[in-house]
Amino acid sequence: MNIRIIDYSELEKMTNEELDSLDAVQGRGFKRTSTNDLMAVRFAPLKEIVPGYVYGGFTILAGRQKLGKTWLAIDWAVAVATGGVAMGSVDCAKGDVLYVDLENGPRRIQGRIRALFPEDQSLPDMSRLEWVTEAPLLNGGFIERMELWRTSSRPPRTTPDTS
Q1: pTM for the complete prediction?
Q2: What is the end-to-end Cα distance of the chain in Å, rounded?
Q3: In terms of Cα–Cα distance, which of 91, 108, 90 is closest to 99?
Q4: DSSP code of residue 31
Q5: Which segments of 27-141 does DSSP mark as H helices, in order?
Q6: What is the DSSP string of 33-51?
């Protein structure tokens, strides 16, 4: 392995192309894009999971304790899994949901679902909503298992709650 020591004054004289080449060789660079190039790109529309609230990709629902984050996430999950309505007014397309809840166990999850659908209401078909209450560490196979689920499920998708 060749390591090249470069004086700062030498870096100041390099062109952007030379700097990019040096960064790539040393494996610690970053890709730069001009604003003009960035503004010329036409991006595909974002995939709405819960329109106006959750989009395809990575989403974090954060806040202090006892604000209702888990209730909101369960509402979204049920709405997506059933092709129903989230938050009482947001229509959702039907899709698979893997809800990763490492804080609440099956009993508590069941209790929350029952609270959303009291005894006089029949449960909708929630076969597209699956729960994970135990999982390996991120570096112990979690990411690989998530990827397996992602590639085997039908869109749209939502996932972890570790509130």
Answers
A1: 0.70
A2: 45
A3: 108
A4: -
A5: 35-40, 69-82, 106-116
A6: --HHHHHH--PPPPPEEET
For 149, the 3-state DSSP assignment is: helix
- DSSP-derived letter for residue 101 is B
CA 86 to chain centre: 18
Distances (CA, A) of 135 to 25, 75, 131, 149: 38, 22, 11, 13
CA distances, 140 to each of 101, 104, 135 (Å): 17, 21, 9
Three-state DSSP class for residue 91 = strand
Examine residue 156 and say whether the peptide bond preceding it is cis (omega within 30 degrees of 0). yes
- What's the burial of 76, exposed, middle or buried (CB within 10 Å: 0-12/13-18/19+)? buried
Burial of 59 (0-12, 13-18, 19+ CB in 10 A): middle
> pLDDT tens-digit profile of 71-127?
999 999 999 999 999 999 999 999 999 999 998 999 999 999 999 988 777 889 999
Which residues sit opposite 26 in a β-bridge?
none
